[in-house]
Design brief:
The protein is mostly helical and 350 residues long. It folds into two domains: 269 residues, Up-down Bundle (Growth Hormone, Chain: A), CATH 1.20.1250; 51 residues. 77% of the residues lie in helices and 0% in strands. It is built from 14 helices and no strands. α2 packs antiparallel against α10 and α4 packs antiparallel against α5. The chain is globular, with a radius of gyration of 21 Å. It starts with a helix and ends in a 12-residue tail after the last helix. The relative contact order is 0.16. The C terminus is likely disordered.
């Protein structure tokens, strides 16, 4: 609910010429939260156990709830549009978990069946939405709006290629480099800290420069950063890891706010809610695919074995393979980002 509406609310109150700056600031605060996450998670896990992470989320959520009721004045919504698409929603709600569960069960036969069922369900969902009078996801936004379509595709690819980085590196730092959880969290904070620092600047630039220029450059930087991790070894220095994280943070900052600005500026006010929700779906589906792909690679290399000194070689092979695949995926995303074309809202081509 939060992810699907936050960007729509923000976009509705800022004109196109100021929207990138606002989105950049919002992105910065998102990444500040991500910066604190690994550090606080490491401290809590090390001193109070992993369950404390979930207890700590309760007062944070309560504080956010009170803050919204207290400070967020006014309301905005698009005009009512017919009936709720219950059939399309059910198809989507069944197909996506089936797809993800199947991916998690590969290479077993059950995984193949669930994966096939999930893909078939998504195909039926697209066919249903293309014909529905009041679709939950308006396929016409993708058909007749290349900026919207390719910007969302670029977001999907970017999150699919980068989300598992923290997961993979946290295991690498703890098992291979023998760092305690707290120290590993402090090192991993480099990426979101740089993202938080640079996102407002990137968002402001996207008000003046075509977002595809900035987003494509950011995607390329992220691909290079992932390529650095494709050569991880036991002897790799922590300085190299830090440099790769910094490059990823720089690339993601250049990509995220401009790409979001591109998506939200490519539709009219009546579609802000759908555009915001679609972007959230691309982000979360990409994150799930990223983790699913990482776990599949681990299954292929390690099977059901635990990560122990005896399996460190297989673990490193799995990690390098995952990062190499993510680097190639991210590099391909550069072309999806470039294919979006110009954003027709007055921004000038770089």
């Amino acid at each position: 609910m939060t992810f699907a509406t936050a960007m729509a609310i923000l976009t509705s109150v800022y004109p196109p010429g100021e929207r990138g700056r606002a989105i950049g600031i919002a992105s910065a605060f998102t990444y500040l939260g991500l910066s604190f996450g690994p550090v606080l998670g490491g401290v809590l896990t090390q001193h109070l156990g992993w369950r404390s992470i979930f207890y700590a989320s309760v007062p944070i959520g309560a504080a956010g709830f009170v803050l919204v009721l207290w400070k967020l004045k006014g309301e905005w919504r698009s005009p009512p549009r017919g009936r709720f698409d219950l059939a399309g929603s059910l198809l989507y709600a069944l197909a996506l978990p089936g797809l993800m569960y199947g991916l998690s069960r590969l290479p077993g036969l059950a995984g193949v069946w669930f994966l096939a069922g999930g893909l078939a369900g998504l195909a039926l969902f697209v066919l249903r939405e293309a014909r529905a009078a009041d679709p939950v996801l308006d396929i016409r936004l993708f058909r007749g709006n290349p900026v919207f379509a390719f910007s969302n595709l670029a977001a999907l690819i970017n999150y699919a290629a980068t989300f598992a980085v923290t997961f993979l590196l946290s295991l690498y730092l703890q098992y291979i480099k023998a760092l305690p959880p707290q120290s590993a969290g402090l090192l991993l904070v480099i990426q979101p800290a740089i993202m938080a620092a640079l996102s407002p600047l990137a968002g402001r630039l996207s008000d003046r420069i075509q977002p595809r220029t900035l987003a494509s450059l950011g995607m390329l930087c992220a691909a290079v950063g992932l390529g650095v991790f494709a050569f991880l070894a036991a002897a790799t220095s922590l300085a190299v890891v830090a440099a790769g994280l910094a490059l990823l943070g720089f690339g993601f900052a250049l990509f995220s706010a401009p790409n979001t600005n591109s998506i939200m500026s490519s539709v009219g006010p009546q579609h802000y809610g759908v555009a915001s929700a679609t972007l959230a779906a691309m982000r979360l589906v990409g994150q799930m695919l990223s983790m699913g792909a990482a776990l599949l690679v681990f299954t292929l290399f390690l099977g059901k074995a635990s990560v122990t000194p005896a399996t460190h070689g297989a673990f490193l092979s799995a990690t390098r393979t995952a990062f190499a695949g993510f680097a190639f995926l991210c590099f391909g995303g550069v072309f999806a980002s470039l294919a979006r074309g110009r954003r027709e809202d007055g921004a000038k081509e770089a």
